[in-house]
Automatic annotation (TrEMBL):
Family per similarity comment: Belongs to the NAGSA dehydrogenase family. Type 1 subfamily.
Active site: 151
Entry-linked PROSITE patterns: ARGC
PANTHER family linked: N-ACETYL-GAMMA-GLUTAMYL-PHOSPHATE REDUCTASE, CHLOROPLASTIC-RELATED, N-ACETYL-GAMMA-GLUTAMYL-PHOSPHATE REDUCTASE, CHLOROPLASTIC-RELATED-RELATED
Catalytic activity: N-acetyl-L-glutamate 5-semialdehyde + phosphate + NADP(+) = N-acetyl-L-glutamyl 5-phosphate + NADPH + H(+)
One GO CC term, this protein: cytoplasm
GO MF, one example: NAD binding
Record-given protein name: N-acetyl-gamma-glutamyl-phosphate reductase
Stored Gene3D superfamilies: Dihydrodipicolinate Reductase, domain 2, NAD(P)-binding Rossmann-like Domain
NCBIfam families: argC
């Protein structure tokens, strides 16, 4: 394989920085232009001192000129900014959007949850998503545009989709409650992230069906084979830098037992390099996934409540963003899907 040149827009941000951290270990990639907005003209090391090999690189403005001429462009920009940038980049570049602009199929969903005009729909960058009898990875070979999923969406979808696809649960009765690390909110200061108030507290946000990831999860479960879908989704900010622990429960279909559920999850994930159904009795923790492109899962059947309970853990910045994005890049370019991606976490 010849060397792939990669530009990263939003390189001073958390998602862009994580793309760079992972790309530094990718054997086929050469890192090209790094761009930002207000941080243009400053050194990358001022924003990401952990990215030592790139510390002296100077951030450029995010323009067509700086981003063009690369094989791959990652966009780690705030929602609503990617459409205009992508439109200026030629079809010969693979453009991978880490934001939400091109994830949703429904323009009405976009307007309801994000506001403004819908930019469009790109191939969805969740290789493991069950789509009919196949997987979304089949749709990623050779594409030149990829919309990377939301991090919460990744945790919940991977957690519940095998049961939904196999008809083992009622897709109109799915409830997900999540513990979320701060970095999911990006680096810009936000009122609900003032350290003196948020440290030491667990605080729900986006409650009552208002979070913008609700339509994306529903879209995924429909693609996985559900007819009607209803998902109750409640994220909770907890004092950790990275990580998502999602507990997703759903009402079991009649007659379904734990053996049937476990068999469905094993069938769905045994061949997946990054999705690990843990041995029975062992429960996921965010710590075990930190820095790794993995999702760890465990399930139980609550017989009294007749509900399936699935716990899934990911690193929001790796499997939830940058790692998933590079996995999709590999598929789009015809590289081995796992190239440059680690299953080794960072613990304790
Ligand atoms: N954090 C996470 O866990 C996840 C994030 N994402 C998505 O990735 C994208 C980036 O998020 P994140 O890195 O967390 O956000 P950050 O706030 O940490 O970073 C935003 C980046 O975008 C740049 N930027 C801001 N406005 C503009 C603009 N108008 N034009 C060009 N560049 C601009 C910033 O540059 P400057 O330094 O100059 O301001 C910075 O580099 C978002 O769409 C987010 O939703 C997706 C999944 C998970
Ligand atoms: C803690 C926190 O605020 N997390 C963010 C995760 C954002 C994300 O996954 O990215 P997108 O914004 O690209 O959808 C949230 O729940 O909205």
């Amino acid at each position: 394989m010849t060397t792939i040149t990669v530009a990263v827009a939003g390189a001073s941000g958390y998602a862009g920085g994580e793309v760079l951290r992972l790309l530094l270990s990718h054997p086929d990639v050469e890192i090209g232009a790094l761009t930002a907005a207000s941080s243009a003209g400053t050194a990358l090391g001022a924003h990401h001192p952990h990215l030592v090999p790139l510390a002296d690189r100077v951030l450029q403005p995010t323009t067509t000129e700086t981003l063009s001429g690369h094989d791959v462009v990652f966009l780690g920009l705030p929602h609503g900014e990617s459409g205009a940038v992508a439109a200026q980049l030629g079809d010969d570049a693979l453009v991978i959007d880490l934001g939400a602009d091109f994830r949703l199929e429904s323009a009405d969903d976009w307007t309801e949850f994000y506001g403004g005009e819908h930019a469009g729909t790109w191939p969805y960058g969740m290789p493991e998503l069950i789509v009919g009898a196949g997987r979304q990875r089949d749709a990623l070979a050779g594409v030149n545009r990829v919309a990377v999923p939301g991090c919460n969406v990744t945790a919940v979808t991977l957690g519940i989709q095998p049961a939904v696809a196999a008809g083992l649960v009622e897709a109109t009765d799915v409830v997900a409650v999540l513990a979320n690390g701060y970095s999911g909110a990006g680096k810009a200061p936000k009122a609900h992230l003032i350290a003196s108030e948020a440290l030491g507290a667990a605080s729900p946000y986006g409650v009552g069906g208002t979070h913008r990831h609700v339509p994306e999860i529903m879209q995924n479960l429909r693609r996985a084979g559900a007819g009607e879908v209803a998902v109750s989704f409640t994220p909770t900010l907890v004092p950790m830098a990275r990580g998502i622990l999602a507990t997703t429960t759903a009402r079991l279909a009649g007659g379904v037992d734990v053996a049937a559920v476990r068999a469905a999850y094993e069938a769905a994930y045994d061949d997946e390099p990054f999705i690990h159904l843990l041995p029975e009795g062992q429960w996921p923790t965010t710590a075990a996934t930190l820095g790794a492109n993995t999702a760890q899962l465990q399930l139980a059947v609550d017989e009294r409540a007749r509900r399936l309970v699935v716990v899934s853990a990911i690193d929001n910045l790796v499997k939830g963003t940058a790692g998933g994005a590079i996995q999709s890049m590999n598929l789009a370019l015809g590289l081995a899907e796992t190239t440059g991606l680690s299953t080794i976490g960072l613990a304790p």
